[in-house]
Amino acid sequence: MAVKLSQSLKQSQNLMMTPQLQQAIKLLTLTHLEMTSVIAEEMVENPMLEEYGNGNEVPDAKSEADYKVEKLESQGAEAKSENFDEAPIVKQDNDDFDWQKYVETYNNSSSTPSMVGPASNDDTPNYENIISKGESLADHLEWQMRMEELTEAEMKLALEIIHNINDDGYLSLSYEEVISNTELERDHAFDVLEMIQRFDPVGCGAANLTDCLLAQARIAEERSPLLEKIISNHLEDLHRKDYSKICKATGASEEIIMETSKLLHQFHPKPGRLVSGQETHYITPDIYVVFVGGEFVVQVNDDGIPRLRISKLYQQLLASNTGEKNEASEYVLEKLKSAKWLLKSIQTRQQTIYKVSKAIVRQQQEFFKKGPKYLKPMVLKDVANEIGMHESTVSRVTTSKYMHTPIGLFELKYFFNTGIGGKNGGVDISSEVLKLKIKELVENESPKKPLSDQKIADLLSREDVKVARRTVAKYREILGIDSSSKRKVKS
């Protein structure tokens, strides 16, 4: 029997995570205090990092030793490269890595600060402003939901799903029970569920572990069909490390199965735990907005972030290496790569926060000049289009980030509000402004003759803010204001 042999060339892409990339994404989402803590830990663990000067020292120009280090680093990367059946997106040569593309794909940062915090104590926020109650998982998901353009039926179902998600991020009821009262078709209702599962943290609203992990696997720009097949059909086999059974079912080699399954280490089996509303945390502003020379200037808070550089001593040690490889040189080379990634990660984080904050300030000029009543409707897409980033990147970078302004301390999420009251020729205002207007009307009403929801709607229409009575009722309840019958003072 003749055996026919053939060769074929296959080109594909596969996303592979390294510890350095995990660190970069983590830094982008951390608060200022959390980031300074991470940097302090890295400085203890990595001898290649050193702090220099007090802000006045200028980094040395590249020396011959620097070029030798770069050459050694590239040689080391080439020596460690291997041939795989699938080509990884992230190349061993980190300089060729498309940083922005990677950050946008994973929306689930030389620290030489160029933007400093306030120069005087007058710009420091009051102590009363630095304590904030943690946001609940439902609040976090609902905020993202309100950034979507949903019909009333879709919003009703979305709220039903969100408020039936437990602390782990899973549905506390069966999906059939949740959709039993919706007027949407089954497939349409399932689309609403999938939308919520794509919110941050990804995977919330799943019925079980398989659905949760699949939702997280689908967020990558370059999806892995093999990984999704493993999650759908072979989680138990993977737990037992029965790779041969998975190989037989999928047709992939054991090496590829093992490499692909490593991506699961980056997923969270209980995504709801990533958001907690129970702990009290202290706020250090990530951004300061100051009024200078007739305009608002954005300054990223670099206070507490050390000025870092690669240790000259270890650079010289690498440069003096004649080419032979030993355990010491491999260790130093690995620490060099880790240090460079940390510096690049910090710089990227600060630059991204700066771009987003600057876009917010530019679009909300009236707010900064006149106060909260002049907050304009603004959604994630508005900022994303201006700075050339993905909406999910903007959403991630605004989480737990605070801006200290001349009129108070605000979370970046505060500035994102959908427009209300713009139908039938009315004027669009943000939901936060609508709350302020309703609150003001109630505060100025007669105690003996309080305003009904319909009367408030009528008064708002005189300002060209045309909202329905039920909309007024909803925001009144959000503000914790009783109905007019309960507010009435009986003589």
Automatic annotation (TrEMBL):
Pfam families: Sigma54_AID, Sigma54_CBD, Sigma54_DBD. PROSITE patterns: SIGMA54_1, SIGMA54_2, SIGMA54_3. One of its GO terms (cellular component) is DNA-directed RNA polymerase complex. GO terms for molecular function: DNA binding; DNA-binding transcription activator activity; nucleotidyltransferase activity; sigma factor activity. Keywords: DNA-binding, DNA-directed RNA polymerase, Nucleotidyltransferase, Sigma factor, Transcription, Transcription regulation, Transferase. The lineage of its organism: Bacteria, Pseudomonadati, Bdellovibrionota, Bacteriovoracia, Bacteriovoracales. Belongs to the sigma-54 factor family. This is RNA polymerase sigma-54 factor. The keyword Transcription regulation applies. Residues 330-488 form the RNA polymerase sigma factor 54 DNA-binding domain. GO terms for biological process: DNA-templated transcription initiation. The keyword Zinc-finger does not apply. Residues 126-314 form the RNA polymerase sigma factor 54 core-binding domain.
